[in-house]
Amino acid sequence: MAYEPMDRMRFGKTTAGRWSALLLSVAAVLLLSSCREDMHNQPRFNPLRENTFYEDQRSARPLLEGTIARGQLEDDSLLYTGKVDGKEVDQFPFAISAQDLGRGHERYNIYCSPCHSQLGDGNGMIVQRGFKRPPSYFEARLLKAPVGHFFNVMTGGWGSMGDYSAQIPVADRWRIAAYVRALQLAQTATPSDVPAGTPVAVHATAQPGSEVNIAEDAAEDKAEPTEAK
User: Fold this and answer.
1) What is the pLDDT of residues 19-37, one digit of tens each?
2) Degrees to nearest 5, angle at CA 127 with 125 and 132
3) Number of folded domains that form the chain
4) Which domain holds residue 185?
5) Is 21 part of a structural domain of the chain?
6) Tens digits of per-residue pLDDT, 58-111?
7) What whole-number distance in Å separates Cα of residue 95 and Cα of residue 227?
8) Residue 68 domain-assigned?
């Protein structure tokens, strides 16, 4: 029984230590919970919101001079502008395959045919309902235009046509340009434009959605860059 007071003292210290640890844990949890930031209350500025921290009071900041945003290097002038030395070119930045031409056909029907029609004559459904008629792809001016011109029109717009750079990726713009050239060849190509040994299917009149073998074969052959041959 001589050790009983000592045991009680040790027990008291142990219990006090446990309570202290528990209280510290509770305090830490409460402290952390008070610092929580819900996703609906993010520390950010809404578009065009005023920010008095900057002299011009704009929260949206311009890019620093000499910096390029990730994914926006665009160091290939031909691919991203359709131009070389500031002039529109009549060549593609990559070889156009049958699959590319098919993709261009699909994208053209989605984004271009409502105004330009599936034939490319400028008499699309929107035009038939009163919208301003775009030029036909078979005008002499556009028959002579380089493919870089069609790419640039999709990129920056032309006249009453707005740009489609946000809707159509760069590669698809080139594929659509290739299909536009195929539509032109459908009206102007001759059997001599088709590679030797390729079967030629002659159509008296091109219809929307019809397969124009002359045009697609000739376009695919002409669309390949010189270095790709």
Assistant:
1) 777 888 887 777 766 666 6
2) 160
3) 1
4) 92-224
5) no
6) 988 888 888 888 878 888 999 999 999 999 999 999 999 999 999 999 999 999
7) 9
8) no
